[in-house]
Amino acid sequence: MERIDFSDIKITGGFWKQKQELVRNTTVHAVYNRFKDTGRFEAFKGDTSRFEPHIFWDSDVAKWVEGVAYLTMEKREPELEAIVDELVDDIERMQDDNGYFNIFYTVKEPENRFKYRGCHELYCAGHLMEAAVAYYQATGKRKFIDLMCRYADYIEKRFVKDKDTDFITPGHEEIELALVRLAECTGVMRYLELAKFFINKRGTQLEDGVADWSEQMYCQSHLPVREQTTAEGHAVRAVYLYCAMADLALKYGDEGLKIACEAIFDNIAGKKMYITGGIGSSHEGEAFTVDYDLPNEVSYTESCAALGLALFAHRMLLLDADSKYADAVERAVYNGFLSSISLDGKSFYYTNPLEIIPMHHTRDVSVTGKSMWLPVMSRQEVFECSCCPPNIVRFIPSIGNLIYTKSNDTLFIHQYMDSVSELEIGGKKVKVTQKTAYPVDGRIVISVEGADIKIAVRIPEWCESYKGKTKKGYAYLELKENSPVELDFEMKPEFIEADPRVTDNCGRYAVQRGPVVYCMEGVDNGDCIRDIRLDTGSCFTVGDISEYGAPILKIKAYRKEKSPTLYRKKTDKLVETEATLIPYYAFANRGETEMQVWHLIK
Q: Within a domain: residue 466?
């Protein structure tokens, strides 16, 4: 199976076109301004007079640059391009003669290079490499990628040839998948071998002075990668590792890596993933915990982790055309990832809770001195650790990467977006068009110009209306020129229940319409929304497309009368009301208010 790059795909309208224009017109500038305000760009000039650089600032800026590159691929942005060119000049000036580059260790601690595994040097290097590849592909300018090739060569020298570093594999994975991209772009296979080196060495020996193998689970070093079968540790680090494992499984035909990736994915999707596609339930270590531990109010579910899950699941499609992977991509992208950006494109969530109870954020802590950890109730424009905003800037412009893959003679359609694509399928050059309002409704018209081709279309897991024959969730069809294929996946609101081992959700139900998970907010439904019972005997009213990009839902509901006393005898008396539900990704855009995904029913 082969990738189809988004550079061959143009999003032409609908839901994702609106999101891409929001990033182009607002988000990329908002993130730049906050990064400039906080000294991140000054640091690349060696100027630390206002702010001391952090160990991860290189990665923040690099992801922003990558986003600029993707915007530039569709339409040149001279103002943004000038900023990147100046930044690349700064990198050239600050880079060591041997090729080393890292702002923190260049300016603050040059004596400590490659000494501390957990300090993000190789993570930052990876994001710089990804940015360099993207910028070269977008503009044809070689300076940045040449600088990063020098850095990759130096890393290879220190880690593989000289073996004189104080650690062997990165504490925070990222460089592994970046080296794959660098090899693909430059044709230098040493970079692919370097990625394989880091993958093969992970988990084979204790590193960084840690005396207990269990402590290595945080950075997925508890076992050699081919022996890992469950998702463990820091969720973002984990999915970046799994992305690289899947890449190398494909490149080398490595069955051991493929089997490990399959087992890990099944563990995530079957036991450790929220209904929103969020992963990493614990704020301690931003990590996976035990199976079915998916609390709602204290869920961590970092934005970068949902993004990483989508990247990992899409890579799995290259190894096996099974719709369970594309379904996971869809779940993460429309819910757990998209909730991370505000509707105006200027502020962001680092964590994405599934329930907010404002009262719990104002508990009196005078006795204990501290309160229970809770995610914040509103998005912020910048964070001290600001990895998520620039990840959004690079992900949404490149969302087309998720639509297609191809085999020798078949185009696989994994995601549905209004788009036009210039592709080569089975030696035939064709133009493939999708016309759809997805996820507003499930009607998709697919047409081809240039030749007849074979297609495999994903039947979403939530769709019950499709009655044709499928293989691993895909319907295999002939797409003939001048004879479009029309799909119409019925989107009706459904009540979803969780495995009872997810104890927070026992007796409660979520609402999902198509790929979109819905939530209730207090601003629409009054206070104490945990007491509202949705009437399963009545029908949802599906509104017109709203300012949220998907319809609002309404349904008959009931709630208890307010009690004059703290406790009272059981009463069955309920007051009828109407409940309003909005797409989960749109919560917290109207001030601080209660919110929940899992509801009582009647």
A: yes
d(CA 589, CA 199): 41
Same domain, 450 and 509: no
Helix (H) or strand (E) holding 263: helix 255-267
Tell me the backbone φ, ψ of residue 161, rounded to 5 degrees: -85, -55
Its sign, for the CA torsion 366, 369, 374, 380, is: positive
Residue 216: both structure tokens together: 């290595």
Tell me the residue range of the domain where 417 lies: 406-488
Domain boundary among 427, 455, 488: 488
Same domain membership, residue 432 and residue 527: no
DSSP strands (E only) in 8-152: 9-11
Given 453, 488, 523, which residue is the final one in a domain?
488
d(CA 581, CA 115): 51
Based on the structure, what is the number of domains in the chain? 2
517 in a domain, yes or no? yes
pLDDT digits over 282-292, tens only? 999 999 999 99
Express each pLDDT in 427-476 by its tens digit. Answer: 999 999 999 999 999 999 999 999 999 999 999 999 999 999 999 999 99
548 and 501 share one domain: yes
The alpha carbon dihedral of 440, 11, 327, 176 has a sign of negative
For residue 529, the number of C-alpha atoms closer than 13 Å in the C-beta half-sphere is 24
Does a structural domain hold residue 414? yes
Q: What is the pTM of this model?
A: 0.96
Cβ burial, residue 97 (10 Å; 0-12/13-18/19+): exposed
Three-state secondary structure readout of 360-406 = HHHCCCCCCCCCCCCCCCCCECCCCCCCHHHHHHHHCCCHHHHCEEE
Rg (CA), the chain: 24
- Helix (H) and strand (E) counts in the chain: 16, 20
Report in angstroms the alpha-carbon separations of 342 from 308, 333, 592, 596: 20, 15, 13, 18
**3-class SS of residue 421:** strand
Indicate whether 594 and 518 sit together in one domain: yes
Q: What are phi and psi of 257, to 5 degrees?
A: -65, -40
Alpha-carbon distance of 281 to 213, in angstroms, equals 22
Q: Judge whether 567 and 582 are in contact, CB under 8 Å.
A: no
Q: Are 100 and 144 in contact (CB under 8 A)?
A: no
pLDDT value for 116: 93
Q: Is the pLDDT of residue 582 over 80?
A: yes
Helix (H) or strand (E) holding 72: helix 57-74
Same structural domain, 596 and 523: yes
Cα–Cα distance, 472 to 449 (Å, whole number):
28
DSSP of 458-499, one letter per residue? E--TT-----S--BTTEEEEEEBTTB-EEEE----EEEE---
Query: Residue 524 falls within a domain, yes or no?
Result: yes
Q: Pull the structure tokens for residue 68.
A: 């600029």
Q: Are residue 484 and residue 498 in the same domain, yes or no?
A: no
Residue by residue, DSSP assigns 117-185 as GGG-HHHHHHHHHHHHHHHHHHH---HHHHHHHHHHHHHHIIIIII--SS-SS-SS--HHHHHHHHHHH
Q: Is 477 in the same domain as 497?
A: no
Paired strand residues for 485: 446
Does one domain contain both 453 and 538?
no
